[in-house]
Design a protein that fits this description.
Elements (H helix, E strand, L loop, with lengths): L2 E4 L4 H7 L12 E6 L3 H16 L3 E6 L2 H9 L5 E7 L3 H9 L3 E8 L3 E7 H5 L26 E3 L6 H11 L9 E3 L3 H14 L5 E5 L3 H4 L2 E2 L15 E7 L2 H4 L1 H9 L4 H13 L4 H11 L1 H4 L14 H8 L1
Parallel strand pairs: 1-3, 2-3, 2-4, 7-8
Antiparallel strand pairs: 4-11, 5-11, 6-9, 6-10
Helix pairs in contact: 2-11, 2-12
Length: 318
């Protein structure tokens, strides 16, 4: 059975509690996923987990903050993370890649976007670039707290997207030096967006797609001429794995290399989970059962732990 561990405590506590203690798995009959409290990654991890369970693996999903996930991967205490947004997470990934303590197995999602977003009415009023945020005629409109300081809304503390915003504030990029970054959670941030959109208030926040936010509201992504978010055409999501996974388990590595999804699938998962409020395990199960044709390429040449045909085992389960 799959175990889901939810925790958002600091790395030092995790080390004391034993999450990072010990060595890598000796026998690859189980899989440990790192996950974050993002709807897309949550359901995507559940989809992969349920397929691997059908192949005979015992699966565990541990929710951590992004820095803790890469630390755990580098120490061999997690096997894979399906939410490596690049190039945004390069500051976390690159040091471990240089040490060859983690590896990038494959790009599991293309055609992504991760940047600052605003409601369409804000964009059409003149905020078409991040350079426009601090213009005298606009900046005070972003002071939703009414304390005289405009805000950018982010998600959970420690998130790489928050860090991009914090760095921009620290470096006074786009004139944001006297702005505040408000960390929250995906749900908390989107509740602020919902409230602002209802009242036609101005808000700038951390946006991405695929995600149901782009369906629920008419959003726009201002240009980023200084590339604080990296090349907009280079954004993608990779599967990161601990070093040695492919050597330890070629079968598992083959699955991860072939586990590639489409943006519309992930948007559907996110809609079912967060917007329609269905449990992520139900969203994953129902989607797999109805889309075995889409699952088939992931299992090309992949076997069960008993050496049987992987696709046949998944069809039997679903």
């Amino acid at each position: 059975m799959k175990k889901i561990i939810s925790t958002f405590i600091m790395i030092t506590f995790l080390m004391c509690s034993g999450i990072f203690a010990g060595s890598a798995l000796a026998e690859q009959d189980s899989v440990k996923f790192g996950s974050v409290n993002w709807p897309g990654v949550t359901v995507k991890s559940e989809v992969a987990a349920q397929i691997l369970e059908a192949l005979g693996y015992e699966v565990e999903i541990t929710q951590l903050q992004v820095p803790a996930i890469f630390k755990a991967l580098s120490m061999g205490q997690l096997d894979a993370f399906l939410g490596t947004w690049l190039p945004t997470m390069n500051n976390y990934v690159d040091p471990y890649m240089e040490k060859e303590s983690i590896t990038l197995m494959a790009t599991n999602l293309n055609e992504t976007k991760y940047s600052n977003a605003v409601p369409r009415y804000v964009y059409e009023a003149g905020v078409t670039s991040l350079e426009d945020l601090d213009k005298p005629e606009f900046r005070d409109k972003f002071d939703l707290n009414g304390d005289g300081t405009p805000e950018v809304y982010g998600i959970e503390p420690g998130n790489d997207g928050n860090k991009v915003i914090i760095d921009a504030i620290d470096n006074d990029t786009y004139g944001l030096g006297d702005w505040d970054m408000i960390p929250s959670s995906t749900a908390g941030m989107l509740s602020q967006v919902k409230k602002a959109a209802k009242n036609n208030d101005w808000i700038v926040f951390l946006g991405w797609e695929p995600h149901w936010m782009n369906i629920a509201w008419d959003l726009a992504y201002p240009e980023d001429p200084k590339r604080i978010w990296g090349d907009p055409d280079a954004s993608h999501v990779d599967t990161a794995a601990r070093a040695g996974l492919e050597k330890d388990s070629p079968n598992l590595a083959r699955f991860f290399k072939q586990f590639v999804i489409q943006p519309e699938w992930q948007s559907e998962w996110i809609m079912g989970y967060t917007y329609e409020e269905n449990p992520p395990e139900d969203v994953a199960h129902d989607w797999i059962a109805k889309n075995l044709d889409k699952v088939k390429p992931w299992l090309d040449g992949v076997q069960t732990l008993n050496g049987e045909d992987g696709l046949a085992a998944v069809k039997d389960r679903f």
